[in-house]
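Deliverable D4.2, example record:
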Amino acid sequence: MSGHSKWHNIQGRKNAQDAKRGKIFQKISRDLYQAAKAGDPDPANNAQLRLVIDKAHAANMPKKNIDRAIAKASGIGGAKFEEVTYEGYAPGGVAVMVSALTDNKNRTASAVRSAFSHSGGSLGASGSVSYMFDRKGLIEILRDGLDKSEDDMLMDALDAGADDMKATDEKFQIFTDPSNLTGVRDTLQGDGYELDTAEVTMIPQNRTAVPEDKAKQYRHLIDELTANDDVSDIYETGILPDDDDEE
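Output generated by the structure prediction step:
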């Protein structure tokens, strides 16, 4: 039994690592798509795309995943991808928004609906939960190796045109109006800052504690959505019992 228990623990850690890696790849894939869509799909002519590709390589993202994300944006292979958003509630009443890039909306809608159903959640109509989120530009700068106080960083961010900033032990999170994101990004990069993230995202206005008896179902929903290749991002208001709230 001890051997089985050890295998089970190792397998559990591996599954958790795979899930975390999958979420990282999912986010990078979305960033690749957006960078290629907004500019030239050739990295030689697109500085932002080159930055994201460098991040993908640093995360050991397979080349086929990188190529697939760029192909989605450029229409290589004849497939036309659309951006679609689904809204619903996870177990415990947590609001969830799911962004997807798909060449088959029926397939994606069915898969997303099934994920909610399997976990005891429910899909809602358009607008049913989006009002609980604010669309913001988000820039993140890692604090490791950066000799900047919070006050100095805040002043630089505001001078660049940002609206607000939040500091954690690991990073500075700078918030902008979505329309100002590019300008703030370019100004900070011109000031010599190395950006870890520069994107438009959805920020929850409030967070909802996931009841302990719903936590397993909640994780299952997020894991199933993350495993879907069509899903490019998941925004949710939930705080799991063992989570540190970083928002």
